[in-house]
Amino acid sequence: MGIPCHFALFELQPSFRLDLEQLGARYRELARGVHPDRFADASEREQRLALEQSARLNEAYQTLKSPPQRARYLLAMGGRELPLEVTVHDPEFLLQQMALREELEDLQDSADLAGVATFKRRLKTAQDELNESFAACWDDAAQREQAERLMRRMQFLDKLTYEVRQLEERLDD
């Protein structure tokens, strides 16, 4: 396999549906074993190896705990070459995204914190629905293109969620 198996690192079977608490507990357990402080008195080579293992562990954890990144990773494991640049050839979804962005701008302009909270809940529901749709089709080779479409939508909503969090922080100040 061309890419390192993040799932094997955590002793998990490749799957979109993960127990995030179990993943977090296993991550903390593994992180303690490669923490740089444990290698303070070790040779330079051992320190470097621990640092590399720690970086690999962190990358694997960040990838697996994020549904859009986990979806992209699973598709890549299946041999799909996925460009990092996200393009969605889905006019209906693009129109929906434009409407959501306009709504977010209006919430920002009006400094409507309650409206932002409602928007955030709607976004979370949409993300949960996308996650379920992806989980239902990702490992069916006949639905690979649909899985890719869903993954791209997940990435858009993830970016929008990040922007909502930033707006909340600005409005809270």
Automatic annotation (TrEMBL):
InterPro entries: DnaJ_domain, HscB, HscB_oligo_C. Residues 5-77 form the J domain. Keywords: Chaperone. The keyword Chaperone applies. SMART domains: DnaJ. One of its GO terms (biological process) is [2Fe-2S] cluster assembly. It comes from the Bacteria. GO terms for cellular component: iron-sulfur cluster transfer complex. Transmembrane segments: none annotated. One of its GO terms (molecular function) is ATPase activator activity. Co-chaperone involved in the maturation of iron-sulfur cluster-containing proteins. Seems to help targeting proteins to be folded toward HscA. NCBIfam families: hscB, PRK00294.1. Interacts with HscA and stimulates its ATPase activity. Belongs to the HscB family. This is Co-chaperone protein HscB homolog. The lineage of its organism: Bacteria, Pseudomonadati, Pseudomonadota, Gammaproteobacteria, Pseudomonadales. The gene is hscB.
